[in-house]
Write a structure and sequence with these properties.
binds zinc ion; 247 residues; 9 strands; Rossmann fold; 8 helices; single chain; alpha/beta
Length: 247
């Protein structure tokens, strides 16, 4: 059994300042995610936070990460551009995949990898119904046709992402808004998944369906075995005639 090396990066600021968030995620959002991923014998999960040395992601951690999960909100701007570029290149080269959760829609790496501003509309916390649009997809395995989150932050279209390669979930909110809440993107040789639930003041990471989606997404995101070397520059090709190819 191949081990999947997962690193969960969390800004880890709300949990230190806001008693309401502490109550829901006493050890941090990243630790909560680690807890439910840790039950999978094929996953080796590490935690990283913005205030750790090297913003939690020194080269040796990045180089040994198959799947990077990202949660950030208040401090997107503090993430160094150099680190963002390292993440983006690793995704493009198919060495590491990127899973963006909730407010990571505005994180520097998500925007850099996808190439749009990631803007969306938002509003008060309310009831959300997550609808499964693509039940055959690995990320939707074990998820019913819909599930309810009694309290989640309203995120709404228009969501400025590129047209997703696969749209797996769409959400309805009590105020009448809709949101493409689970989508995949293939970038270069790599994979990206965005999943919308996970506001810091809502208990969505304790929801068993949210946990299953994230667990499924980690398995889907394992970088594919690519049968050649993916380069970060275009190799020079000498022009050949059809006859030469056929030789
Ligand atoms: Zn939020």
């Amino acid at each position: 059994m191949k081990t999947i090396n997962v690193t969960i990066w969390n800004e880890f600021r709300h949990e230190k300042r806001n008693p309401k968030v502490q109550e829901i995620y006493p050890e941090g959002i990243h630790a909560c995610i680690k807890k439910f991923l840790d039950v999978n014998e094929d996953m080796k999960v590490r935690l990283a936070a913005l205030d750790d040395p090297d913003q939690g992601l020194p080269d040796e951690v990045l180089d040994s990460t198959d799947v990077l999960i990202w949660w950030g909100h208040l401090a997107h701007r503090e993430v160094s551009d150099e680190l963002v570029e390292k993440i983006r290149q690793r995704v493009y080269l198919g060495k590491m995949s990127f899973i963006a959760l909730h407010s990571a829609h505005h994180s520097k790496p998500f925007r850099a990898i996808l190439g749009t501003n990631g803007n969306l509309s938002w509003g008060r916390d309310q009831k959300e119904i997550v609808w499964t649009l693509l039940p055959a997809h690995e990320i939707a395995a074990g998820i019913p046709d819909h599930f309810i989150l009694p309290l989640e932050e309203l995120y709404s279209e228009p969501f400025y992402i590129p047209q997703p390669d696969e749209l797996i979930f769409c959400s309805w909110f009590e105020d009448g808004h809709v949101m493409r809440s689970g989508a995949t993107f293939y970038r270069g040789a790599g994979k990206v998944f965005y999943f919308q639930p996970g506001h810091e003041e809502c208990p969505s990471f304790h929801n068993p369906y949210v946990q299953r989606v994230i667990t499924n997404a980690v398995r889907w995101a394992v970088p594919n075995e690519i049968g050649y070397t993916v380069k970060d520059e275009c190799p020079h090709i000498t022009w050949k005639t059809t006859d030469e190819f056929n030789q």
